[in-house]
Amino acid sequence: MSITAEEIRTQPDLWLRAAALAREHEDALPAAGARVAVIGCGTSLFVAQAYAALRERAGLGETDAFAASEVPPGRRYDVVVAISRSGTTTEVVHALRAGGLADRSLALVAVAGTPVDAVADAAIVLDFADERSVVQTRFATSALTLLRESVDDGAAAVAAADAARALAGPLPVEPADIDQWTFLGRGWTVGLAREAALKLREAAQAWTEAYPLFEYRHGPISIAAPGRAIWSLSPLDDAVVAELGHTGATVLADGHDPLAALVLAQRCAVALAEARGLDPDRPRHLTRSVVLPDHDLEPLT
């Protein structure tokens, strides 16, 4: 079994630990009414997008998510939440050191004593969710579970139970039979759809795309065809399922909690990589952390 597959299987238990950590660090997490920016890169950006949508949906305050390299100048927030598994991501460190974005900063990292941890005003360390694989799975979902629990108490228990079932059951499709994957979401699951697409792309070099559900029908649906999959991480009503089914593509949507559906997508990524003779632990052109020369980071103006 690959390292990535082993790490995927640990997620339900880790989510319960992340939920407990959310309660332990309640005072450090953004308070209701605070204006919040959430920054990250790659997978961490998609976690940021999901959390921002969850927090706003819960009525807890304006929440924006940005790629750490694309923080717009002139914005001001009460709190900036920075997400970085390694704690060494150059763009995140740079954004925090630049200052001026928020009154205080909170980092979510897997490794203590790293540059992101050091420059932030406070940090929550999810060292139990750190990973050996380059491809992020359990750190990202544990970080999101922590943030989700802070706005939706009890969500982690439901998600963990669903994920355990998703790990025990069969895959919803034979990955090797699919030549193109499109992931859809609404609200907070748009970020999850983007993350699911990234997992297939990283681990298996698959052709993947991701869209908000209704935006998909404004052009991208034209690539749907037999042998391709349309996978929604949000529930679909029967009329939408029928409409998408008319394309001939395989339509996937079930009653799993969206995080548990992401676990299924992670499993598909590993299965497809193995079917293609690829090593999911060592994706092409990728490293555990992206560390850039300072001259690559031109400020936005």
In short:
Helices cover 41% and strands 16% of the residues. The chain has 301 residues and is of the alpha/beta class. The protein is globular and about 50 Å long.
Detailed description of the structure:
This protein folds into 2 domains: 3-158, Rossmann fold (3-Layer(aba) Sandwich), CATH 3.40.50; 170-275, Glucose-6-phosphate isomerase like protein, domain 1 (Rossmann fold, 3-Layer(aba) Sandwich), CATH 3.40.50. It has helices at residues 3-9, 11-24, 43-57, 90-98, 115-119, 138-151, 155-168, 189-204, 213-216, 238-245, 258-275; strands at residues 36-40, 63-67, 77-84, 102-109, 122-125, 180-185, 208-212, 228-232, 250-252. Helix 8 (189-204) links the parallel strand 6 (180-185) and strand 7 (208-212). The protein is globular, with a radius of gyration of 19 Å. The chain is built from 11 helices and 9 strands. The termini are far apart. By secondary structure, it is an alpha/beta fold.
